[in-house]
Fold each of these.
Amino acid sequence: MNIRHAYVHVPFCRHRCGYCDFTLVAGRDDLVERYFSAIERELSRVETPLHLDTLYLGGGTPSHLGPRGLRRLFGILRTRLASAAQCEVTVEANPLDVTDAFVEAAADCGVTRVSLGGQSLDATTLRALDRDHAPVDVVAAAERLRQRGIVVNLDLMIAAPGQSVADVDRDLEAAVGLSSEHVSVYCLTWEKGTAFDSQRRKGLVAAVDETVERAMFERAIDRLEAAGYEHYEVSNFARPGFRCRHNEAYWDCRPWEAFGPGAARFDGRTRSTNHRSVTAWIDRVLAGADFTGDRDAMTDEQAARERIVVGLRRRDGIDRGPFLDASGFELDTLSGSAIGGWVAAGLAIDDGRRVRLTREGMLLSDGLWADVLGA
Amino acid sequence: MPIDCKHIRNFSIIAHIDHGKSTLADRLLEFTGTVEKRQLKEQMLDDMELERQRGITIKARAVRMEYVHKGERYELNLIDTPGHVDFHYEVSRSLACCEGAVLLVDAFQGVEAQTVANAYAAINQDLAIVPVINKIDLAYARVDEVLVEMEQSLAIDSAEVIKASAKAGIGIEDLLAAIVERVPPPKGDPNAVLRAMIFDSHYDSYRGAITYVRLVDGTIQKGQKIRFLETGTTHEVIELGQFVPQRRACESLSAGQVGYLVCNIKDVKQVHIGDTVTIPGDAAAAALPGYKPPQRMVYCGLYPSEGENFEELRDALEKLAINDPSFEYQPESSEALGFGFRCGFLGLLHMEIIQQRLEKEADLDLVQTAPNVTYQILKSTGETIEITNPQDVPDSGQIEEFRQPIVRTNFLVPAEFIGPIMQLCTDRRGTYLKTEYLSPTRAMLTFDLPLAEVIYDLHDKLKSVTRGYGTMDYELVGYFPADLVRLDILVGGKKVDALSIICDRRDADRRGRAIVKKLRGEIDRHMFEIALQAAIGTKVIARETISAMRKNVTAKCYGGDISRKKKLWAKQKEGKKRMKSIGSVDIPQKAFMAVLDTGGTERT
């Protein structure tokens, strides 16, 4: 199989933010050396080096490795993961880590994009989100990256505890002012087991009212579209030509490789996820034991149904012809009646060739998937 | 040689629930040596699992004991009876086979509602009453006061009351002697033409129908041909015998005896409770009076929660009905719930038991609609129809008179609770009849109440206002006209037939408000706003709105996120399967019981 995409999970953080449920360790930099050994070992699965169109280092906080750590990691990765021409290489970064030395190292390693965890440009909201940086750090980091010619993908969070629609408006203005090539906007999700979630259960913090949250999200869509960004997936906005090609590979259901704790790979039919505990993953990899956790093995039909879900989360929606070619199923055989219902309810538009969700449909889309994944 | 009637005694034990009936029965079995002590399971006679679990007797049982009194050997047949108000019908069936009844009263609880009801049932059938005061060894026993209560309420001479403790084995011998001396022997003629009464039956997977009989006249032999008069069928007696308490075969049974018949009957429907057994041909005896057919007081719809289980549900109901003739079912269909059955029960406890047995024994997942009583409607055409489903109520223009069942309800309560009971019954549109004092501290209040009010929550309310000390019992007086209406519930503008109820017009506003409010809590938000309305005809009397979901979208869907999210979506899908879709609204199963919410908080 010709795999053109790879994901590497770097699980280190300075501290765990209260809303985060990702695979990571905070304050365990002592594990970094063993992590490198384990990554090297896991990479040995790859017999012939891959020629990648996209490589994505996510976390955790990959930038927490620092310039030297980043160079070490890329040194290891490059033994098996080669870049094809025009390869998109993305690294997630905390604004505080984006120093001149880091930017230099990133550029040297072939990094073309940085996903910048800015989250907000307002000090109060950043504190509410349990972040350790200040608005000025975001501005400085973006500026440094731009000067070095690295594309910036700014992450923003909205519907933070205590945030008002006016606060979101101000954040959006500031974000647009940074004129990054790409913006991701995430409504705060109260994941089970996080510190935020337990505080909410105790009544110490309150989630933003759903109607307000929707208004915030719609403001974000409107403002960013007005500023020339294309709203190409539920949470993602790009200036023309700057969509994240790596993420698009996920949504096209193309196969990809993945390395590191909690990382998920996909071979076209089965998605398997590495053990989500950092230490367990390291121990097992180094011991030569099985380090995978969940396996989501799908039939062709299940894979096709999943393709509908991720396809419809994109603004372009699903084109019937390419869908048939890629999945082997007629879209309407799988979910013709559901689509008909959505169109009638104003949740989707169907021009006979292409089906896509309306804004209303997109905002309510989780309620649609039970019908698609059925049977 | 058939046994002489003068050596037979047939009796029942009647008591309020929990007064120790089953323990006393166990003790009698043990004392007469019918069952050895080490074999004695608690509640020997209650062999249905549910009965054991709930500590109540549901079906009548019959057991033969032997007892020697003053040098004479007697056959004592104990025909057990259920104690709960729902099973009055079974009680009267058992009593019809007896000449006497042991009336058991708890020495602490005293005379309670079912004590009175069951005692009167026995007295009305001219049975000799052997009164017993039980649990006299309890530290809190108030024997003297309870004797007064028995005298006041049932005109029982306290000198005749046997003082006993079934648990401690006190007074058992006195009781057995009293049964022999005070209960008259049966009056049959063993040489007359065979005449026996079928008083129960159960189904045995190996032997087919086991028919319980009380012989009135004549004798019955193994191998003999017999005829069931009502069904008109002829059978050969393959086996006959008595319960000791297991089946024990014998060669013949004669007048006065109680036992069972096995006639190779595969279909229990051929065995009619109350039918007369006699000989085939022209010389057959005349039919015995038989029983009043059971009166189903409460109806509800039972639907499989997934459509494909309809056949399974039918099989399960059929199986249950075999051993429980008091329960009936008819196929019906509902727009909301699909194909199911309208089921009739003796009361709410009976309904609950049947539903539990269906879920437990047949492993069925059921949707139950709220129970309702039976109504009568006199149509303008002069025709009277019986309504067991609110859906069948005709247009108001066709109704001349709408009648509901009224029950005479006796409450036995400590005197300090008379006020709260008065209030409770007045709120439920009861008609006060009388108060009688059983003792200076205990009173019996009698009201006529609509049965519908009684079944919803009266028992719970009684227990709460009397701190558990009050008891009640009721019997049907008849159907009386009332200002009744059908209250419909609309979800998203569509009438949901399974949610309709019949209620008093004056209660409609309160009930309607309570139901739509309850439904609002039961139905999840959808992508669109859902109007919940209660209406009489076309007039909407209450409304609630479930606001539309405004935002429901996963923010992050990268790499491994999809697998995790899919699990969540799959859960939603499972949840949806367990709901019924009305239009495009998914209604959870338990919402169909929402109509039971009578708006209790709004009334005192």
Note: The mean pLDDT of chain B is 86.
Amino acid sequence: MTLELLRAALGAERSISDWKIVETRRSGTECFVVGTKLDMARSVEALDRRLTVYADSAERGSPGRGEATVSIHPTMGPAEVEVVVERAAAAAARSRNPWFPLPERADWKPQPPSRFEGTGADAWMPKLLDALRSASVDGARINSLELFLTRLETRILNSRGVDAFFARWRGEVEHTVEASGSAGEVELTESFSFSEPDLGLLSEELARALELARDRARAEPAAPSRGLPLILSGRCAEDTLRWFYDNLDGSRLYSGASPLALGQSLHGPDARAGEYDPIDLAAEAYLEGAAGSAPLDADGLPLARTVLAAGGIAVELHGQARYARYLGRKPSGDHGLFSVSPGSQPAAELRARPHLEAAAFSSYDVDADTGDFGGEVRLAYVFDGSQRRPVTGGTITGSLMDNRARIRLSRETALAESMLGPTAILLPSVSISGAK
Amino acid sequence: MTCEPSPFLVSEHGRLREVISLLSKKFDYISILGTDDEGVSYRAGKGETVTAEPLLIQRGFVARAQSGGRIVEYSFNEPGDLSASALAERVGRRLEETLASAVGADPYPPISDEPAVDDFRGTVGRDPLRQGPDEALGRLAACRDALLAQADVAAAQARFDFIRVRRVFASPNRDLAQSFGWAQAYLFGVSRRGEACAAARRADAGLKGLEAIDALESKAGELGAELRDLLGAGKIEPGEYDVILNPDVSGTLAHEAFGHGVETDMFVKRRARAAEYIGRRVASPIVNMFDGAAGVAQTGSFLFDDEGVLGAKTQVIRDGILIGGISDALSAMRLGFSPTGNGRRQAYDRKAYARMTNTYFSPGSSSLGEMLAAIEEGWYLEQLDSGMEDPKNWGIELKVRIGREIKKGEFTGRVASPVVCSGYVPEVLSSIDMISGDLELRGSGMCGKGHKEYVKVSAGGPYIKTRMRLG
């Protein structure tokens, strides 16, 4: 089924008021390594096409709009597409949500092309693998790793004239590293994504993981501790700060699930100036090296940096345009990335007082609704004011509702996964159980 | 209602057989898995209803080839209207290019291709794809509104997903087809009182259709009461406690403790300590544990896996002794094991790994009342949020939404939330001293491998009394 035939089928369905098509062509290659040997290689060529149809209605003078989304597989013939489109149109007509417009055609700014561009994924793989394998830390080694590199071509069209095309690259690594200590072998598994062939960064990321495995091998069982603040960095810091970003999503504000509100402090009603670092938050369209960069969102709305919180006060929402419309705001779009501005102190100063710094969890989670966070500790460092020791085991629990009025952010910032933000954050009120 | 096979896959059957025949002359082994999973997702949130598709909807193919011991795969979804010979030429060329990139790969023994021909068609009650959206959207909106009417409830959402799984597998000696459906329905709520906030849910899932919504329709009052309890919940004083795990939580204990821990691709990577413990005691003598696509009917059930191996029922722990693992075809070959039908993919465009299906402890002889009476001071744990495995070091982590305090055999009314449960797997399993006679499998969750690769599974079992570290 070609796009032209699909557009013709849409034109023939009278109950469809508007439509949107998001088409993504993927071309990728994958390597699976066990120990030092390649276990298996894979390649992928696929075209994904998602159609959303909208059906308008008017009840008691109030305009409504329903929607339904379906996959249009490239192997579908005209008759099958007709059935799927009819089914989607019928489903859209059964939903009567408040009306919202689709984005109109608008100018948008292409993002810098990835340096992967111009060379096929197959050709890049040996270089990327070599970079990952070059990481070396005494006493630790790579157990296994999976490497994925995909070129993504996205085309977004709608019935209001949007027709945009852009290409991106997404690399992903999932790695398990291991080390031996007095209690036997230990391991850590992590993953990260990238969009540029920065071979040095890949090697550094693996080396950092190997250092953590080495430290976990020599870690002692964690003792219970009271009153120690918690420091988080990297992905855990991002997951924690993401709670503020996610709760300024229009869909969560509209549904009532978010505890945040525009015009109010992200830090809660009891926050006192000077006791916290105000969170300045922005939705980002492009961060160099981040696989989530995109010039437009899935509705075809051009994306640009949008300030969401300034001085710790929520000033704007982000997310799908329809929710912005419902809440009476100008849509800023559904960004895949965000940034948090630097805090007041260098990370070294945050780390100068006694604390526990969690470096690896079995699974670190932050509950989007309640702000509860925590997990079982695979590796943490305890600093008692003079000595920093690796520890393992035990659990950390806390709530952002209890911590947001005294959160501290480091002055240094870096790209984590989808956030450019503080390299370390300090949460003063957590519960830390010991390993025994 | 019988789940009929995919007309698309039926129409491709002849071409696939011809492609297999042609490529079998070029490679030592060749197979193609074809998928055409269709479905629908309905959602009723505050002020809106939406129809979409669940994750995992897919239509495509993955060809696996072996040459000189090396194994590669090529996933594609645009076969076009090429003749069988032209398609074989294209797929063969891409497999050869991928083989060229796999020079130096560790060779596997020859993939076996024992003959098998079968066609399975499951049944569901009311097929959502035939019923249209009115019933589902209307009932979900009613569930949402009933929950929103409860005191302190700030947000509510009701959701229903249905997937009709349709797969074919072709190799020189295998010709398999299956078509079955599963559904899941959720009712989520968020309550708020001042700065206090709580979230909870009810869910149902199984090899069913629209009837999955039935279980939600009477739950709004119960869920509203639970959300109010949670608004007043405190935190547990960290420490080690006697605990009773409800079937939802005990199933995830099985899943995380000795489900991931006996996936034999982890044995190949030397990532699973269980490999050294086959034939040794790892749990209390009253513990028996199983995994399998066969033997029970839940969301992890199927005729054949994504490598064309027939599903089975595998006993993992017998009377406290670890007796076996669950295998995908490739790790089984490396280890000299028989594959158990656990080679599963998130989709046609992802690799197959050793994955769980339906994982559960088998029932014991105690009652829940007897378990409560046996606890001087401890916690009853329910509403699982998530779990995480640590096959190498045998750590375990379960996050549950609700802990209910027990003192002198009775609930005190005190509620804690959330509760992180952890421990050393053999200690937790060896501390199991009572198992109820119930067996409840719940299929409302997904399982990831590492940080990705989501597949549908179920887990469950009886109520279990053991000892864990809570925080």
Note: The longest strand of chain A covers residues 37-59.
